[in-house]
Specification:
- The chain has 18 helices and 6 strands.
- By secondary structure, the chain is mainly α.
- The strands form 2 sheets. It has a 3-stranded antiparallel β-sheet.
- Helix 13 crosses helix 14.
- The relative contact order is 0.14.
Length: 383
């Protein structure tokens, strides 16, 4: 019996969809190697697959169940803000894709914050224009966090007013040229590309990225808010988490893959990545068994460049996994010749709406988020 099995056999034994298999490999639960007969295909360790099957069949203790819930596991925290269900994303019960066809980021923020419309704000907070946009936005939030009042004990209207100001201020620091009556998408278009089609694509992208349930950055924001920290501190916590290559920083990894495809050709770029056992950034999402609906909606609006069309086709043919929102936002940037870091700048501007929603919701509970650790170190010296 071979120590390595193909994808079809692996899927049969595990009883999962290709997207779940991809997630197992990404989380290092399974080892994948290129198939010598066809480098576009992968082989999987039979012993690891069988071990994973046995592990899933065994009953788990409460501590192990709780540990598993932290990583794409069961829901662990109640929220009224957003939800992923049935392969769709919902903002307070409304389909985010449907909303994104007509809404602005500001309208999405109002929905997430559960208000009819955002409060009027004056001038955005000042920022250091000599810094790169990401640094300018984060340094501005850090300064605001040091000057602002804690969330605990404050009236909801006060938190809403501060949130509206922070949302616009961060967008300005990230590059949006804001003016009275113009939404944030128009501000980015004024700076990067005034083509109405580009502005519409950016507006849709901003709405689709406004929140995504209890993602890593939203959880970081909630943890900070649960201590009573100022809204700016909670948002800064979310921003810090967003920069990681497994979160918003994935857009930079997608751009690197696009660069490889431009230099080597899409087929070779995909095959070499898979031959090295590397995952393809921008493809597949553990919460969506078929396709990320945000990516599907956004890509459908784009006159996609041939390079990205070919790259997507090669990746799907080789892995069976479809593009995610990271690929789609990079596609917007490539289609309309936006700056290289435009995807993560838009991601951060959009996700401010979600971070602030989670911070305000968590602050309203008055509860501290403080899980316990399951110690696995050296034996305790109880002498």
């Amino acid at each position: 019996m071979s120590a390595w099995i193909d994808r079809d056999e692996t899927l049969r034994l595990l009883g999962v969809k290709p997207q779940t298999l991809y997630a197992y490999v990404s989380r290092k639960l399974l080892t994948a190697l290129p198939d010598p007969a066809d480098p576009r295909r992968s082989l999987y360790s039979r012993s690891e697959v069988e071990g994973l099957v046995k592990h899933r069949r065994r009953g788990r203790g409460a501590a192990e169940v709780a540990e598993g819930a932290i990583s794409w596991g069961d829901a662990i925290l109640p929220t009224s803000i957003s939800s992923v269900a049935g392969g769709r994303l919902y903002y307070r019960g409304r389909d985010a894709v449907v909303l994104a066809r007509t809404a602005t980021l500001e309208a999405a923020a109002a929905l997430l914050w559960d208000v009819a419309e955002l409060p009027e704000v004056g001038q955005p907070l000042g920022f250091d224009g000599d810094l790169p946009p990401i640094e300018a936005a984060m340094s501005m939030l850090a300064a605001a966090a040091c000057r602002s009042d804690p969330t605990r004990g404050r009236a909801a209207v006060s938190l809403l007013e501060e949130s509206a100001k922070l949302l616009r201020s961060v967008a300005a620091a990230l590059g949006a040229e804001l003016s009275a009556g113009a939404d944030i998408a128009a501000g980015f278009a004024r700076r990067w590309n005034r083509d109405p089609a580009a502005e519409r694509a950016m507006r849709m992208a901003l709405v689709l990225m406004a929140d995504h349930e209890l993602n890593a950055s939203a959880f970081a924001a909630r943890v900070a808010a649960s201590t009573g920290a100022p809204l700016a501190a909670a948002a800064l916590s979310g921003f810090a988490a967003l920069l990681g290559p497994s979160h918003g920083g994935a857009t930079r990894r997608v751009r690197a893959l696009v660069d490889e495809a431009a230099f080597k050709g899409p087929r070779r770029a995909v095959r070499e990545r898979l031959a090295r056992g590397d995952a393809l950034p921008g493809f597949g999402h553990p919460l969506y068994p078929d396709i990320d609906p945000r990516a599907a909606a956004l890509l459908a609006q784009l006159p996609l460049p041939d390079l990205l069309e070919e790259l997507s086709s090669e990746a799907v043919d080789a892995t069976g996994i479809r593009p995610d929102i990271d690929f789609a936002t990079v596609a917007v940037a490539c289609t309309y010749d936006l700056p290289r870091d435009a995807p993560i700048q838009m991601f951060a501007a959009a996700r401010m709406a979600g971070w602030l929603a989670h911070a305000m919701e968590q602050a309203s509970t008055g509860r501290l988020i403080r899980p316990r650790a399951r110690y696995v170190g050296p034996a305790l010296d109880r002498s």
